[in-house]
Structure formats: structure tokens, C-alpha cells
Amino acid sequence: MSHSAVDVVVVGAGAAGMAGAVALAGLGLQVVLLDEQGSPGGQIYRGITLAPLSRRDLLGPDYAHGNVLAQALASSSVRYEKGAAVWQVTRDHQVSYLRDGRLHTLQAKAVLLATGAMERPFPIPGWTLPGVMSAGAAQILLKSAGLAPSEPVVLAGCGPLLYLLGWQYLRAGVPIKALVDTTRPEDYWRARRHLFAALRAWPYLRKGLELMRSLRSAHIPHYTAAEQLAVEGDEAATALTFTVAGKAQRIESRCVLLHQGVVPNIQFSQSLRARHYWDADQLCFSPVVDAWGELDVPGVFAAGDGAGIGGAQAAALQGELAGLGIAQRLGAIEAGQRDPRAATLRERLALNLRIRPFLDALYQPREENRIPADNVMVCRCEEVTAGDLRKFVALGCAGPNQAKSFGRCGMGPCQGRMCGLTVTEVIAKARGVTAEEVGYYRIRPPIKPITLGELAGD
């Protein structure tokens, strides 16, 4: 096991992590950037440095923009450690990670968490069947390896990624049987109060409209206001069923891709016992941060989608802002030098976030797709259903942590990542209280699985 001291450790090499690390290194600080993947980019820019030009063109200009950040990282003094699985971050800034089968520990003066987002669970009947994937996972295969389904797919759910993946699949020649959107007329009505601000972010709206136009031009069947989604199949997916305006629909497919937005990956901030709040617009927990991204754990900062969903461009700006905040804290820059630079970044950030309230209101996932019926699996690792959780509540279970004791819920390999939000909302609904009152799992290290042999060292 190796130990060393550095100025700053950045966890995550997505947009926020790359931008933050480069900004810190540019101010003369010794920075180590740790990321589990084999190349920088995070989820949005996955595989950007390895993708051939043909794949970059297929995925579109927004994806190609990640190369600018990756090149800035490569030409900086940042020590970039790829294949580094961070399993612990402590309140005194000690970061432990596993790389090439060996444990390493860094003692930092400050830590920047740039852990990004993860897809929201979509627990409907049949969602655990083979042949059912999340749209984000399917897109990762396309970005990292150029892999796409070899047979017609059905895209179902809501959110911009659903349309982006459909557009990318069209360009890749993947046949799409249907796009099944759960967005209802009342969602548009709810979003209308944010329309003026959204119109001031016209480039984002234009992109979305162009994606929809491309799918319509390809004559892909498009269903809206879909309800009662379920995947049929005994041993694997065979069809997606749903209703529209009370009329039953069934689309045969052995590949169903589900999506209803992304949420912050808060495993590390939760493990630090940092304060979190329930975001009523994005329907998830987010860490409480100050204007520079600092948690209520001194010296630990969060930036990008891990601190609240804002998108790739906003994440990069937040990474730079956090870098300036850390640099001033460590004495690498005076507040008088920091603040003018930050003002420009904040103006650009505000422009990028103008579209966010509109999107959050328009694509807010429906309750029936977040809080499932009794027979639907919630915790895939330990095979706990929503009905099991409701029985636990009837016996006195008050929250996710107690659900572990009642039925091992959240104790599998994913450590609650896949089921955490669903468990919170199912219990809150059953108890008749708010999600914030119920809370989240008490996350403990190791955040990523490690063996006893690896922990013991050679």
C-alpha cells in the first residue's frame, strides 16, 4: 500500500473533474485526478480520447466538445490516474483507491468530488428481465465501443437523453420500433411558467426540437402520455405494453431501453455525512453546497451533476468555480484575483442553467414509474419487492436503513445505488410523510467493492 501527500485530489474525470483539475493545476497546485475508467470523459464524454472520428461524428458535436477538455487535461501538470477505483474519502481529506490490484492512499489538503450523475431507477413490471436496459447504459456501449443492438429497439420513458439516443441510433442504422413517451399534456402545462427563461436559452430548445424532428422524419411510431408501462416476458423481454388515453398498446421487442432522467451520484457525499436536501423539482437528494461548491465538510467540494443536475457545459463551469474556491482556500490565489474570474464563469453558468427549470418541470417522472406496485422488484441485488417494503413499514420500518435490517434491502453489490431513491419514496408514501423525512441509506465505505486480500495488501 502506498501513501503520499498532495494539494488536491479530484475524484471523477468527467466535465467537472477535468475542468476543475486543470484550473487548479494552472494555479500552481499539485493535483491528482482519479477516475475508474480507462480514459477521461466521464459518462457524457465516455471514450472521447479513443473514439474514431466516425464515431464522434455519429454521436454529434456536443460529444465531440469533450475532446477540448481532455486535451487541456493532457497538456496540464495534473497527475491523471486512470483505472483508479476510489473506495473511501474521509472528512480529513484522505482518499483511498484501488489500482492495478494495489491499494493507494493520498492525503490531500482539499478534495473535489466530481462524481457525476447516474440514471434514475425505472421500476416497472419486467424491468429486471434480460433484454431490458437503461438508455444511458445503451449509450455508453455506443460511446465506448461503438456497440448497438442488432435488432429493433423500443425507447420508453421521458427526458432529453431518450431523444438523443434515438437520433444517434438513427445515424448508426439501428432500427427503432417505437418511441414511447410518458410526458403528458399537464407536464407541458406545468412547464409553461418556465417557458420565458427557456426561450432565452434558445440553442438548447433548438437542439431538442431538431432531435424530435429527425425522429418524426424517419416515421418512427411515437406515443405520448403513455401509462401503465410493463415489459412482458418469462425468461427475457418479449414486448412492451402500455396504455394511451385508456387504450391498450403492445409492441413486440426483445430490446427495451428505459429512461426517466438522471440524478446526482451522492454515494461519497453521503458517506462523509455531509448535509443533503430533497430537491422537489428534480425529485432526488442533492448535497448542500456553498457558492464555491464546498460541502458542510470543510475542505471537501462538489461540482457538476453530483451536486445537482445541470448538464455537461454547466458541470465544466462549476468545476472551474470549485477550483478557484479551493485555490483561494489553499492560498494559491487571493480573493481579489479569484472573484473577477469567478464572475465571468457565473454569468456563463447562469446562461447554461436557464433551460433547467423548464426541463425539470416538463420531464418530471410520474409517480407510477417511481413508486411501483407490490409485485415489482425494487432492490435487484437482494430481490426485495415494493410489497416487501410496505410490509416492513407495517411492522415499524421507518426508513432505508431499517429496511436493511428487515430484509437486506440495499446491502448488495451496488450498495443501494440502483434502489436508493425508490426505497425512500416507497417508504415515504407508505408512511404518509415526505421523502426528506424518510432520508437515504447511511452509506459507509468501501464505496466500491474490494476484497479482504486487497485491503490487507501484499
Biggest sheet character: 7 strands, mixed
Q: Distance N terminus to C terminus?
A: 8 Å
Radius of gyration: 22 Å
As for the CATH topology of the largest domain, it is FAD/NAD(P)-binding domain
| Relative strand content | 15-25%
Q: What descriptive keywords fit this protein?
A:
458 residues, alpha/beta, FAD/NAD(P)-binding domain, Arc Repressor Mutant, subunit A, seven-stranded mixed beta sheet, five-stranded parallel beta sheet, 37% helix, globular
Describe this structure in words.
- The protein is α/β, with parallel strands linked by helices and 458 residues long.
- It folds into three domains: 2-118 and 263-333, FAD/NAD(P)-binding domain; 121-260, FAD/NAD(P)-binding domain (3-Layer(bba) Sandwich); 371-438, Arc Repressor Mutant, subunit A.
- Helix content is 37%, strand content 22%.
- The chain has helices at residues 15-26, 53-59, 61-64, 66-74, 135-145, 160-172, 185-191, 195-199, 202-217, 267-271, 312-329, 335-353, 356-362, 386-394, 400-407, 420-431, 435-438, 452-456; strands at residues 2-11, 31-34, 79-81, 85-89, 94-99, 102-113, 117-119, 132-134, 153-158, 176-181, 222-223, 226-232, 239-244, 247-252, 256-260, 262-264, 276-279, 284-287, 300-302, 377-379, 384-385.
- Strands 1, 2, 3, 4, 5, 6 and 19 form a seven-stranded mixed beta sheet that branches.
- It is globular.
- The termini are close together.
- The mean pLDDT is 95.
